[in-house]
Amino acid sequence: MEAAVLKHRTELLATTAGTCLLVALLAWRLLEVLRRRWFELAAKIEEVDATHRQLLQSEKLAGIGQLAAGVAHEINNPVGFVNSNLGTLGNYSQQMITLLEKCRAGQASESDFAAADFDYLRRDLLELLNESREGLGRVKRIVADLKDFSRVDHAEAQEFDVNAGIESTLNVLSNELKYKATVIREFGELPPLHCIGAQLNQVAMNLLLNAAHAIAEHGTITVRTGHDATHVWFEVADTGCGMTPEIMQHIFEPFYTTRPVGKGTGLGLALSYDIVHKHGGEIRVSSQPGEGSCFRVSLPRTDTASVS
Ligand SMILES: Nc1ncnc2c1ncn2[C@@H]1O[C@H](COP(=O)(O)OP(=O)(O)OP(=O)(O)O)[C@@H](O)[C@H]1O
Ligand SMILES: [Mg+2]
Known about the structure:
62% of the residues lie in helices and 15% in strands. By secondary structure, it is α+β, with helices and mostly antiparallel strands.
């Protein structure tokens, strides 16, 4: 009898041990599968992150390309007329030298001066010089604005004058905006903001370009700035086409665009959202279809805002 009980217990023990082993084996296999999936997922996240960074970079490059085209146009105009003035001034100089040589040889007469239209030459020469000086001044200002806009010397977060940043962005974009809109500035007094200025300029640029694109013929873009105890803000309001609530739901998604194929990449607002978010701020949007839109960027006023 005892032997039978012992045998039964042994069998039970063996079955239990077997089951435990099986469960342990299954758990181990499950863990192994989970571990593999985890690594796969981590690799995918890294891949998505790298693609995201790449996309933001290509949007930046597309923005720079667009900007370069506008700036080239702005610079081309003064460079064009300064070049033509230099040609005319070259002719004038030649005529003057001929006259001076005749004077030196004691052979110049009043009729030589009249033939060279000396009085006109003298007047026009000064006018051409002044015009050329003004043209080169314009080129110098454009280059300075461009440098301010890109803030090449300041890639790190530091004290930044938001009004000045918006002003240089408006100047750099003047070619894109002037045919589309009258720009109204309603700038408030602002305390310096601890941020990466070039990035904020890029946000302002995206909002201004979107505003210009939303206007079909000619409209108004109003740029306002201000601050309260905790935040500095700036906003770009336009009298463009506006957005339906359905469109507004998607505007910050990468690649969402309602612009024709090949015109927009749909990354401008995604990039702007990223930048503002990194500065601890937010972008608010209000819009009415057919009436216009207003984008407000609000950034915390703190010297310790973590900017990554
Ligand atoms: N001011 C605005 N008025 C009307 N619609 C707007 C405005 N700003 C943005 N949108 C809408 O949001 C979409 C996404 O804007 P976003 O700037 O991200 O991309 P995009 O302008 O289409 O292309 P890009 O990459 O060249 O900026 C636009 O296609 C447009 O539908
Ligand atoms: Mg855009």
